[in-house]
Amino acid sequence: MVNKATKPTDALIGHDAWNIQLDKNGNLKHFLTTEGLGSDMLTKILDTAESFANVNQKSVKKVPLLRGKTIVNLFFEASTRTRTTFELAAKRLSADVLNINISTSATSKGETLLDTLQNIQAMHCDMFVVRHSDSGAAHYIANNVAPNISVINAGDGSHAHPTQAMLDMFTIRRNKGENFGNLRVAIVGDILHSRVARSQIHALNTLNTGDVRVIAPRTLLPVDIEDMGVNVFHDLETGIQDADVVIMLRLQKERMTGALLPSEQEYFQLYGLTEERLLVAKDDAIVMHPGPINRGVEIDSNVADGPRSVILDQVSYGIAVRMAVMTMTLGREPEKNESDEKTGAGQ
Ligand code: CP
């Protein structure tokens, strides 16, 4: 039996779920999942993000690529990093940004999701950035919006978090170079409930990563995890042996039903990343975490704040990656060096 947490809710996803991301010319129209996109498309996202990375270093952090466009952030679930970096990305592209506060919107008065969407659509917006606790919600919205609107999935249930996965790929590429074929990447923790892990695994495999590993207790792994093309370990030190990249995941207690773990203390003893345990990874291994981190549960503070940690770099790179995805889905990609010219590079 397929674990429900491994698949988006079929009722919410149309038959063409994996195809609707591309328009008839093969360009990115929506960004809902890393699954099913080719290495050319993922590499194009990374290359486009690279061209925006320097914009974020300048005193004038703006380019006019999305001037006149309206982007609506629809977050039905809590977020710090994703919502704020999407907002910053949109503003740095000169778009108008609307943040809908779901707790004070009419959905809290019983209005359906579709009615809310149709009302916002009537305000002539160009993009919805959506986070929702239901797997498949972003696909559902993409299948039901007007044809001129792009939808970006900012995390749906346990299904997908594609921009997080791409900022993670960007971080790996910045630290380890463009050839993923030489890399051993270990993903540790609550794989079962992690939309981030699922999107990372698809992206890592599409980019031909040499060895993608998952490390977790059996209770925190989907039953069909081997079908995703990963090597499975249950012992942390064996799993991260000689790893180039170690990605730690939070225990997603809000998505757990039943007793999947004895206690957080015992989990830390078995799966918590400490400086001592990290010694078995490569000397130059980097440590990543999508956040929010739980210190003393999946990661020790000495590691989270230590020299191998690139956790805060991941957050910074998230702005450039989200700028890339927004411009690509709206068909406004930068010309080569355009970001330099528009901000007056060399000033
Ligand atoms: N990584 C991530 O999605 O963090 P937020 O929940 O804070 O957006």
What does this structure look like?
- This protein is of the alpha/beta class and 347 residues long.
- Strands 7-6-5-8-9 form a five-stranded parallel β-sheet. Strands 2-1-3-4 form a four-stranded parallel β-sheet, sandwiched between helices.
- The protein is globular and about 55 Å long.
- The protein contains twelve helices and nine strands.
- Helix 1 packs across helix 5.
- The N terminus and C terminus are likely disordered.
- 47% of the residues are buried.
- The chain binds phosphoric acid mono(formamide)ester.
- Phosphoric acid mono(formamide)ester binds next to helix 2.
| Largest sheet report | 5 strands, parallel
Helix content: 25-40%
Structural class: alpha/beta
Number-wise, the strands total: 9
Please mark out the parts with pLDDT under 50 across 5 or more consecutive residues, or reply none.
1-15, 341-347
Q: Kindly, what is the distance between the CA atoms of the first and last residues, rounded to a whole number of angstroms?
A: 60 Å
What is the general shape? globular
- Overall mean pLDDT: 90
What is the percentage of strand-forming residues? Answer: 5-15%
Radius of gyration: 20 Å
Discrete helix count: 12
Series of secondary-structure elements, N-terminal to C-terminal: HEHEHEHEHEHEEHEHHEHHH
Kindly list the characteristics that best describe this protein.
single chain, 347 residues, alpha/beta, 5-stranded parallel sheet, 4-stranded parallel sheet, 9 strands, disordered C terminus, binds phosphoric acid mono(formamide)ester
